[in-house]
What we know:
Layout: E1 5-9, H1 16-30, E2 36-37, E3 40-41, E4 47-51, H2 57-63, E5 70-73, H3 90-95, E6 100-103, H4 106-111, H5 116-128, E7 132-137, H6 141-145, H7 149-160, H8 166-169, E8 173-176, H9 190-208, E9 217-220, H10 229-233, E10 240-243, H11 250-263
Parallel strand pairs: 1-4, 1-10, 4-5, 5-6, 6-7, 7-8, 8-9, 9-10
Antiparallel strand pairs: 2-3
Amino acid sequence: MRRPLIVANWKMNKTIDEALLYIGAFIAEILEEISVKGSVPARTWPEVVIAPPAPALAAVSAALTGTGILSGAQNIHWERKGAFTGEISGEMVKAAGGTYVILGHSERRTGWGESDEIVAKKTRAALDQGLLPIVCVGETLDEREAGTTQEKVSRQVRGGLALVSPEEAERLVIAYEPVWAIGTGREAQPKDAEEVSLLIRAVVDEIVGRGSGSKVRVLYGGSVTPENVGGFMARPSIDGTLVGGKSLDPAAFSSIIRETLRKKPLLKTED
């Protein structure tokens, strides 16, 4: 059974002090919903990841210790070290307490020219350096209107998984982010996201085999809000969300988690 996953992508927002204030408020918001035994939530609970800007990662990771909530990075380089000014490696993220890393986000692909080949190399590096990749895929408005959504998303999924083994592919998370529905005022409908998530699973099955498409977790990430998340979470092929703007507000992000828990009570209580 696939565990629901909710990821907060803060993008280029929050200083270290602001991040720590957020974590305090966020934990207070969800305190009534979770009970903690050691570092594992004791009751049915989605997996929650917060991905702050790189300078705040170590502080956020430390502040989350003992809550069962994980941290992650928004990007890494594919090399472990070297003359790559301004970049960070997976090893650095791991040392700062990160567990996950977001790769191939639409903003990286369009703003920094990241190709499918680059995303594949970063995915390989993340796995080699002890991180769990969240590989982002999605089409633009022009591509959607031209009817090439399936072609674009299929190509990106194949690219992201090009350098991983079947066993590794099953551990990946794939986030579908319709670029045309992010900050544009246009909204994707749950049925749109469900169709693409089923496509993603079919492509994974085709290139990996072994029924891997049913094991990979697929997230939706297109202007997620407390008001619309329930519709997406009601779809059986969507396992969680990659949340941008609304993750910056601890009350709104907590509401998204609560709605996910209400729509996807998939886990048994952990002893």
